[in-house]
Design brief:
The complex is a heterodimer. Chain A is mainly α. Helix content of chain A is 76%, strand content 1%. In chain A, a hairpin with a 6-residue loop joins strand 1 (191-192) and strand 2 (199-200). By secondary structure, chain B is mainly alpha-helical. In chain B, helix 1 runs antiparallel to helix 2, helix 3 (72-92) runs antiparallel to helix 4 and helix 4 packs antiparallel against helix 5. The termini of chain B are far apart. The mean pLDDT of chain B is 87. The chains are: A mainly alpha, B mainly alpha. Chains A and B meet through helix 8, helix 9, helix 17, helix 18 and helix 19 of A and helix 1, helix 2, helix 3, helix 4 and helix 5 of B.
Chain lengths: 507, 147
């Protein structure tokens, strides 16, 4: 089969010693990122971009891109593993998608079954990761071949759909999410226009001629923003971690959880395909679904093993599923994949349908490395879970300034510019206040990345159709994407209005 | 919410400013294409419209009280230290500025443990410099009195 041939090709790349090393580093750092409070997968990936750029600077560009993205993807799904450790041991989720794991995981720990809970999380994450990778393997190429037939109008409309989807699901208020999307698109126009050579919003500053650097904003808004929030809210992981004990689940434990693992994996994977459905939402839905269909519903919240297995499988399944729209369509559906996309673009690799034709070694190397990475995570997490439990006790006194120092190092090492450091600090402060008041950051970063491509496709389409804008609505694929985008935005508003009217009638 | 009102007004002002700024940009060079002016113009209008909707929504909501137990002082000190660090990075070099920043930041987070803080700060700043500059041959501001 073609897919297996590509996988073999990819394994040839993923199993090169340097890529195995990078996958290992990514998985280890990702697990630490998931375990440590004050830093999540988005900020972890953003912080590591300049570090990986430096580590791979001696390699040819394609190899540097492959190795870097293998490391960064390892951080992404590694963080999904690591987040469950603090959720189970101290009832504090290491990152957002592990919130559900606290509900039953901590209860299991109080019953002396912390080791079993951690082991089930590791196994669930492994199974979900493998299922997602198999899905990616079989769906990626056919989807990219369909996408190759898209014209510039279709590409433009698809990106608008991606922005609308993420904005609709990104936060509590759609309007605020759209404001952030528009701000991101405005920031994307800063700099010298590559087609006309006209400087836009540079105000004579040479540092702005090449535009606002994605890396600076990503590290500032995600890493610094999160750290500032931790400092202000004193959101340190406190409390003595519960003793881990035996990490070997019994036959009964496996029998009770295998179906939840498979259901969670499938649910997470398919939801992850949808832009805007991040790992957090997927894990919540998996938990709710599992509880709804369970014969022992009353046990949920009291230490039900299914309540740990399903959300953990879902969040890793979603992480894998989210790679599909990123790699095949060039549409990142979550904040983390948006940052991964930014990383790829930094290496002059543009995700999208042409990626499979022009850079097959990057994409198949990445897909194959996800299998390698998931095996590594299972090997790392089971025996090292007690070591990771110790890491939770890192004092925030040293951790928080350390993250700030790494951020400064990372951005300066790549940009060599004080202007970018000041921009990083400023964007971190802005991100804290914006996020605190429910203005989601992910749409801004996503639109900063997609902005130049949106404008480019818009210009190409308008040139191709001789200024006839109606072609965006008459081209069937473009019309379909735009209709879906409108429905995606309108349906939640309509449902909200109907809910309010119903309240008025009842009240 | 208070923040929403002020933010919306700021976004409206930004949108209006961008609208007038866009008028100064060159329009398309050919009759049928989109030039550098069109997208900023469209985005300016879109920003004003969404910000007005947000402002209307914000005016209809009562502002809740501020949350207690928030450590704004520590945050402001950390931001101040970060800015000082950025400005001193090149004059003092990476090692010294990072060491000073970390010492000050550690003490801001929690007073005490000066020796341990100094050891960790020294190990971090020296370690990163040695690894990155001497091993990986990267570029960071050197010591002010030469290497």
């Amino acid at each position: 089969m073609d897919a297996l041939q590509y996988l073999a090709q990819g394994l040839g790349i993923a199993l090169q010693p340097i890529n195995i090393l990078f996958a290992f580093i990514g998985c280890l750092l990702g697990t630490l990122v998931g375990v440590l409070p004050g830093i999540g997968p988005i900020s972890g990936v953003a912080l590591l971009i300049p570090v990986t750029a430096t580590m791979t600077s001696g390699l040819p560009q394609a190899d540097a891109a492959t190795s870097s993205i293998i490391l960064l993807a390892g951080v992404y799904y590694g963080a999904m593993y690591g987040g469950s450790t603090t959720a189970i041991l101290i009832n504090t989720p290491g990152e957002n998608s592990s919130v559900c794991t606290c509900l039953d995981g901590y209860q299991m720990a109080k019953q002396g079954r912390a080791g079993v809970a951690l082991a089930i999380c590791a196994i669930a994450s492994f199974v979900a990761g493998i299922i997602a990778t198999i899905g990616l393997l079989f769906m990626a190429k056919p989807l990219s071949e369909v996408a190759l037939r898209f014209g510039p109008a279709d590409q433009f409309s698809l990106m608008i759909l991606g922005l609308c989807a993420l904005s609709s699901l990104a936060g509590k208020s759609q309007v605020k999410a759209f404001i952030m999307t528009i701000l991101g698109l405005i920031l994307a126009t800063v700099g010298v226009d590559p087609i006309s050579g006209v400087a836009r919003m540079t105000f004579g500053y040479p540092e702005l001629y090449s535009g606002i650097e994605f890396l600076t904003l990503a590290v500032g808004m995600f890493a610094l923003g999160e750290v500032f929030k931790t400092i202000i809210t004193r959101d340190y992981a406190e409390g003595e971690p519960i003793r881990v004990g035996s990490i070997i689940p019994s036959k009964q434990d496996m029998k009770d959880s295998w179906a939840s693992i498979l259901r969670g994996s499938a649910l997470g994977f398919f939801q992850g395909l949808i832009p805007g459905c991040g790992a957090t939402l997927c894990s919540f839905m998996a938990y709710t679904t599992e509880k709804k269909f369970s014969k022992n519903r009353a046990n949920f919240g009291k230490g039900a093993i299914q309540g740990v297995a399903a959300p953990e499988a879902a969040n890793n399944g979603a992480a894998g599923g989210a790679m599909i729209p990123l790699l095949t369509l060039g549409i990142p559906g979550t904040g983390t994949t948006a940052v991964l996309m930014g990383a790829l673009i930094m290496f002059n690799i543009t995700p999208g349908p042409l990626l499979f034709q022009e850079r097959p070694q990057v994409v198949w190397g990445l897909i194959a490395s996800m299998i390698v990475g998931n095996v590594m995570l299972l090997i790392l997490n089971l025996p090292l879970v007690k070591v990771f439990a110790k890491v939770i006790e890192t004092p925030p006194k040293y951790l928080i300034p350390g993250i700030l120092a790494i951020s400064v190092f990372g951005v300066y090492a790549v940009q060599l510019s004080l202007f970018n450091l000041l921009l990083m600090v400023g964007s971190g402060v802005a991100a804290y206040y914006l996020a605190k008041n429910d203005y989601p950051i992910a749409p801004l970063v996503l639109s900063l990345i997609l902005g130049p491509m949106i404008e480019n496709n818009l210009r190409r389409a308008v040139n191709l159709y001789n200024g006839d804008y109606s072609r965006f609505l008459t081209e069937p694929i473009s019309l379909t994407f735009l209709v879906i985008a409108v429905l995606w935005v309108a349906i939640p508003q309509v449902m909200k209005l109907r809910g309010r009217r119903l309240e008025e009638v009842i009240g | 919410m208070g923040f929403d009102r002020y933010a919306s007004i700021l976004f409206i002002a930004l949108g209006v400013a961008l609208f007038f700024y866009s008028q100064t940009l060159t329009s398309s060079f050919t009759g049928t294409s989109i030039g550098p002016k069109e997208l900023p113009l469209f985005l300016a209008v879109a920003l004003v419209i969404t910000a007005v909707i947000n402002l209307v929504a914000a005016l209809q909501v009562k502002s809740p009280g501020g949350k207690k137990g928030l450590d704004h002082w520590k945050f402001l000190i950390m931001v101040g230290l970060l800015l000082l660090y950025v400005f001193l990075l090149e004059p003092l070099g990476y090692v010294i500025s990072t060491f000073l920043f970390l010492m000050a930041a550690f003490q801001t987070m929690e007073r005490g443990g000066y020796l341990k803080s100094a050891l960790i700060a020294g190990a971090f700043s020296g370690g990163i410099y040695l690894l990155y500059v001497k091993v990986a041959l990267g570029v960071l501001p050197g010591l002010p009195f030469g290497d």
